[in-house]
What does this fold into?
Amino acid sequence: MTFKKLLLGAVALSAVATATAAQADKPEVFRVGIIGGENEADRLRNYQCIIDQLPKAIGVKEVKLFPAADYDGVIQGLLGGTLDYAELGASGYAKIYLTKEDAVEPILTTEQTDGSTGYYSIMVARKDSGIKTIADMKGKKLGFADPDSTSGYLIPVTSLPKDLSGATVKDYFSETGFGGGHENLVLAVKDGKFDAGTTFGSGVGSFDEGYTSGNLRKMVDKGLIDMKDFTEVWKSPLIPNGPIVIRTAIDADLKAKFKAYMLDLPKNDPECFASTMGGDFKSYIEVNKDFYQPVIDARKSQIGQ
It folds into this structure.
C-alpha cells in the first residue's frame, strides 16, 4: 500500500472519529441526574414537566431521569459523562471541580423571593426535647444529611466551631452520623434517632411554615412533618444557592437552548419551576465557577484536614 493511500486512510479514520465525537456531544437522549435524599416517586413526579417540555425546547428525541440513592451517585455520573444535567448543592459541584474541573459547567442558580442568591443550613431538634440553643446540644447526638451536602454537612462542620466555644465538632457532640439525605435526616430527628440534625431552608419567611423553600418546606407541603414539632437550634451564614450544571462537552448550541429554556421557565411555566426547585423562588440567574469559589476553597480545606 502506498504512503498516499495510508495517509488518505488515516485522514478518513480521523474524520470518522471526529464525527463520532461531535455526535456524542449532541445526544439524542438528554440524561438528567437527580440527587437522592427524597422519596424517589416524588422526585420523578416533580421532574415530569421537564421530561415533557425539554425535547422540543432543545432538540433531542428524549429526556430520561436518573434518580440516585445519594448525592455521590449523581456526582459520579457527571464525572463519568453518563449524565448531561443536574441540580447540585455547591459542595457537590466543588467535589466535581476538585476532581475534574472541566467535567461540568455551572450555568444557573436560583434567586430567592427576596432577591438573595443564598440559603442556610438549619439545625433542627424536636421541640419537646428541651433543646433550644447550640449550647443545649453539648454532649448530644448530631445528624448530618449527606457527606456531599453543602448545608447538610460541609457548612456545619466548617462553620459550627466558631459557635462551640473553640471546641471541634468531634469533641463537642457525643456522636455524629448521617441520615441518608435531607428528608430522611429530618425524619430521623423526628423519630429520636438524632437529638438534632442539619438540613436546609431559604431563611425567608416563617420557620413555622418551613420558610419559603428548602427541604423543610417540601416536607411540610407533603404532609411529612408539622413545624410545630420542631425548633431551630442553629442557622449558618448565607450559603450560595446550588448550581444547575451541564456537561462541558455538550454541543454549544444545545447548551444555549437549554439555558434559554431554563431562564424562561419561571415565566413560561411557574408551576413546573416551583415543582422542580421545591418551593417559592423568584427566578434563575446566570452564574459561573467564580460564584462557588468560597465553597470550593472550604471543601478543599476540609479535605486537607
